[in-house]
């Protein structure tokens, strides 16, 4: 994308990417749940950083639902951040969720 589009002055974006948050599963708890959440924030961080390094604009998909298998980072009703770790990863912060 960088070579074919960005370098030729053509805007490029990665649209509607997101990662489901696998919460509320009885078989995904403890260390494995922590790893899943860390992997989710790492994915966001890596994708956004790679896009930024190559002049591509990322567009995150946030479905506004904050429950099982959601992709929400914000609550659209209350206009609040529901997943601060992912919000930080998307905006240049840490890639790991808080302990």
Description:
The chain is an alpha+beta fold and 99 residues long. The chain is built from two helices and four strands, in the order βαβββα. The strands form two sheets. Strands 1-2 form a two-stranded parallel ribbon. The radius of gyration is 15 Å and the shape is elongated.
Give a topology summary.
Layout: E1 13-17, H1 30-53, E2 57-60, E3 74-75, E4 80-81, H2 84-90
Parallel strand pairs: 1-2
Antiparallel strand pairs: 3-4
Helix pairs in contact: 1-2
Brief sketch in words of this structure:
This protein has 2 helices and 4 strands, in the order E-H-E-E-E-H.
Strand content: 5-15%
Spatial order of the strands forming the largest sheet:
1-2
Determine the number of helices (DSSP H or I, runs of at least 4 residues).
Answer: 2
**Rg measurement, Å:** 15 Å
Structural class: alpha+beta
Shape: elongated
The total tally of domains equals 1
Describe the main β-sheet briefly.
2 strands, parallel
Low-confidence stretches: none
What brief labels describe this structure?
single chain; 99 residues; two-stranded parallel ribbon; two-stranded antiparallel ribbon; 2 helices; 13% strand
């Amino acid at each position: 994308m960088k070579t074919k589009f960005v370098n030729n002055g053509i805007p490029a974006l990665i649209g509607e990417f997101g990662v489901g948050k696998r919460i509320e599963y009885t078989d995904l708890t403890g260390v494995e749940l922590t790893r899943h959440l860390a992997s989710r924030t790492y994915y966001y961080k890596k994708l956004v950083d790679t896009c930024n390094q190559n002049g591509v604009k990322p567009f995150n998909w946030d479905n506004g639902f904050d429950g099982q298998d959601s992709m929400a980072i914000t609550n659209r009703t209350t206009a609040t951040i529901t997943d601060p770790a992912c919000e930080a990863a998307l905006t240049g912060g840490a890639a790991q969720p808080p302990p």
